[in-house]
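REQUEST FORM: STRUCTURE PREDICTION
Request ID: SP-0412
Submitted by: Lab K.M.
Chain count: 1
Length (residues): 178
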Amino acid sequence: MLLASPAAFAATYDIDSVHSKVLFNVEHLGFSKMYGLFEDYSGTFDFDATKPNAGALTVKIGTASIKTNNALRDSHLAGPDWFNAKQFPEMTFVGKKFEKLGTKDGVINGELTILGTTRPVTMQVSFNKEGVNPLDKNYYAGFSAHTEIKRSDFGMKTYLGAIGDDVEIIIQVEGRKQ
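STATUS: Completed
RESULT:
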C-alpha cells in the first residue's frame, strides 16, 4: 500500500449540475460587463484534502447552452461568428497540475479547448467545504474558481474592439462522491 500513487487515495466526484454554475463576463462597448452562463456541462474531479496536488479534473461544456438573458443574442453567440456550436458542440477544460497555495487556496493549471484551439489556462481555486449533505446523505466537495482568458487566443475575434477580448470565467462547483 505504501507504493501506491497518491492519486490512488483520491475520491472521484461527479459535478452536480443542479448546484454548480459556469459563468462568464465580458466588456460591452466599454459601458458595462455583460454576464452569461452555460447550462449544459458535466465532468468529474478527483480530490483528497490531504493530497490536493494529486487531483484530476475534466469538464465538458455544451456551447449551444449559452444563456445571456436575451434569446436573439444567445442564438448569435451559439452561431458561427462566436462559439460555432454546430461545428464545435463542446469546449473542455482538463486540469493537468494542481498546486496548494494556502489552507483553502490554490491553482489548477490545465488546458482549455474552445473552437478546436487548445491553450494553457491557470485557474485560481478556493476550497469551500467537503462533507455529508444533510439532505441526501451523500458526500460532497465544493470549490470556487475563476480565471481570465483572451477570447482572441482561441480564434474568437468577432467585434474585437467593441466587445472585450478579456473574458472572466467564474465557476462554482459541487461534486458528489461516486
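NOTES: Residues 115 and 155 are 7 Å apart (CA to CA).
Reviewed by: T.R.
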